[in-house]
Each structure stands twice: as structure tokens, then as C-alpha cells.
Design goal:
- With about 325 residues, the chain is an alpha/beta fold.
- About 50% of the residues lie in helices and about 10% in strands.
- The strands form three sheets. Strands 2-1-3-6-8 form a five-stranded parallel β-sheet, sandwiched between helices. The chain has a two-stranded antiparallel ribbon with strand order 4-5. A two-stranded parallel sheet has the order 7-9.
- Strand 4 (about 195) and strand 5 (about 195-200) form a beta hairpin.
- It starts with a helix and ends in a 6-residue tail after the last helix.
Length: about 325
């Protein structure tokens, strides 16, 4: 027979664990709301990439007509002047460049958002030449999606990293405190963008980029086969929408073009197997054309490289309605 004191102890233990579970659930719910909704969706973490992402999404929403879409990373953002490309092609062009940290996932999700509002004729993917060697960016997918996704499709540690991001939570709490105490001093990001992309930093040391590439050539062994996870969805979307899509390697140093040819050939072959047309050779930059990174064109050369890529793409554009008659 169970004693009354034993029954009371069991009841108190159950109540304790239920209370503890509810407290943990509430804590996690608040943390997710801060990290995901306030931090990323409302932009309160004030990350620089959020300024850029919001800027590109606004272009999609505000555009009246879209004929040609460029998707990619900073190598695209610094190489293609969309207004100049529009003049050259006679077709309305959007440059929706993000940064390399978003990977192919960012391009995939922006393409989905474009196709939800517009009917482009041509999509150009322009990514930095070493993109196929980089780590798969799950975070880039979570940050850019405007659509429901099943979190159980992804590694749990990556989902947790996004929804319970301690850095984002800290930034949001700091922002809320600054608002509450009327001491808000967080930059708006208006000085973050210039000429349709992120402002380049000064102090370029082009010679060091050339030395780095000379000492560390890319090899086929560095290709990450996981990179196709998000990339393979892009040609599928293009086929379903009936639009022409082409992959282009972004600009890089002349020395990397010369000593990493085997890598580029292997990466190109893998991308082609996914059903994408590929423009094989990147733009090989001489030292004087480099900007603030080894794959960034100098701002003074942006229009010249726009013309270069237009010339390389012109036949594909003409075949697919991407050039006005």
C-alpha cells in the first residue's frame, strides 16, 4: 500500500518536471522568436548582409519588368552593372548579387522569389570560381527563404545554429535596449551600398592576391560534391518555368586562370551534368583590374567587365530572347 507521503512526493515530482518542461519550452520559444523573427526577418540584428538581402528583395518587388536576371555572389556584384547591361542588351536587367556566404542556396531562393513575380527570359548564375570548393551553406538557405521549409530535411545542428543563434540573440537584445534607453546608435546601412552593391574597402594589395593564387592553386580534389544540393534545384526550376539558364564563372586573377585550369574543367563538367549550360573560361584579371578582393573587379572597371561579359553572353542571349531585335 502506497503511503500518503509517497503519493504527495510523486505528485510534486511530476509537477516539478512539468513546470521545468514548460519553462524550457517557453525559453526556447522566446529564443527562436528573437533569433529568427526579430533577428533575421525583421532585420534587428543589423547584419550587413541583411541590408544587402533586403535591398535585393526590394528590387524584385519593385521591378515592373524583368527580362534578364543575374544571380550570384560578390564577384557578380562587383563585375556587372545592371543599368549598363540593360543599355547593351535592350532588355530590363536585374543584378541580385548576394555574398559568397550565401552560396548557391541564396541564388536558388532569390530565383524562386523572382519567378513568383516575374517571367524572365534568361537567368545568369555568376559565382566566384572557387564556389564549388566551399562548404555547403545551409545557413544561406535559411536566411534567404521566403517559403515554408521542412527543418527535418536538414542536419539538426544547422537548424539549431539558425533558429537559436546566440550572436543574433545578443545583437537583438542590444538593439532593443538601445531603443528603450533612447541610445540607439546602430548604423542604418545606407553607407553600406553604392552603385548597386556593397561599397569596396580601400587599401587593395593586388600583388598579395597574385602571390596567394600562385602558391595555392585550386585542384579537382578540392571540389565539394555536396555543393550540388542547392545548385541542382536551379536548372529544374528553369526547365519548369521554360526559361534559359546559364552558369558563368566569375572574374579571378590571371595566375589562377593559368594554374587552376584542371579545377575549373572538373567543376564545369559537374555543373553541366546538372543540366546547366556553362560559359567555361572566367574573366582573367590583370593586376591593375583587381578591387578589394581576389575576385572583385575594381569599381573603375565595372562597366568594362559588364561589356566583356555581355560580349561573352551575347550569342546565348540572342538565342533565348535576351537581346532586343
Amino acid at each position: 500500500m502506497t503511503s500518503p507521503s509517497s503519493s504527495i512526493s510523486n505528485f510534486e515530482a511530476r509537477r516539478f518536471f512539468l513546470t521545468l518542461g514548460a519553462a524550457i519550452g517557453l525559453f526556447l520559444g522566446v529564443a527562436v522568436a528573437i533569433s529568427y523573427y526579430l533577428g533575421f526577418k525583421q532585420g534587428m540584428a543589423n547584419y550587413g548582409f541583411q541590408v544587402l538581402l533586403d535591398y535585393q528583395k526590394n528590387k524584385i518587388r519593385q521591378a515592373q519588368r524583368v527580362d534578364i536576371v543575374f544571380l550570384g555572389d560578390s564577384s557578380l556584384g562587383n563585375a556587372i552593372d545592371a543599368a549598363h547591361f540593360t543599355r547593351l542588351s535592350g532588355r530590363d536587367t536585374l543584378n541580385l548579387a548576394l555574398t559568397g556566404s550565401f552560396g548557391y542556396a541564396g541564388s536558388l531562393n532569390l530565383l524562386r522569389q523572382v519567378l513568383a513575380r516575374h517571367e524572365p527570359k534568361v537567368v545568369v548564375l555568376l559565382h566566384t570560381v572557387d564556389m564549388m570548393s566551399r562548404k555547403l551553406s545551409y545557413l544561406g538557405y535559411f536566411q534567404t527563404t521566403d517559403f515554408f521549409f521542412n527543418p527535418f530535411r536538414f542536419p539538426p545542428e544547422e537548424v539549431t545554429r539558425f533558429f537559436l543563434n546566440s550572436q543574433t540573440i545578443t545583437k537583438v537584445i542590444q538593439r532593443l535596449w538601445e531603443r528603450a534607453t533612447a541610445k540607439e546608435g546602430v548604423a542604418s546601412g545606407e553607407d553600406y551600398l553604392y552603385n548597386d552593391y556593397i561599397v569596396q574597402k580601400g587599401g587593395t594589395d593586388a600583388a598579395s592576391f597574385f602571390r596567394k593564387h600562385a602558391d595555392h592553386p585550386l585542384t579537382p580534389a578540392q571540389i565539394n560534391p555536396e555543393k550540388i544540393l542547392f545548385l541542382q534545384e536551379i536548372p529544374r526550376l528553369c526547365r519548369e518555368a521554360g526559361i534559359a539558364c546559364i552558369y558563368v564563372h566569375g572574374p579571378t586573377t590571371r595566375v589562377r586562370c593559368d594554374n587552376s585550369a584542371d579545377f575549373l574543367q572538373a567543376a564545369t563538367a559537374m555543373i553541366r551534368q546538372l543540366g546547366l549550360t556553362v560559359l567555361e573560361e572566367p574573366a582573367c584579371m590583370p593586376m591593375q583590374d583587381l578591387g578589394d578582393s581576389d575576385d572583385h573587379v575594381s569599381p573603375s572597371k565595372k562597366q568594362a567587365y559588364t561589356e566583356y561579359y555581355y560580349g561573352r553572353l551575347r550569342a546565348f542571349l540572342m538565342a533565348n530572347g535576351g537581346v532586343s531585335p
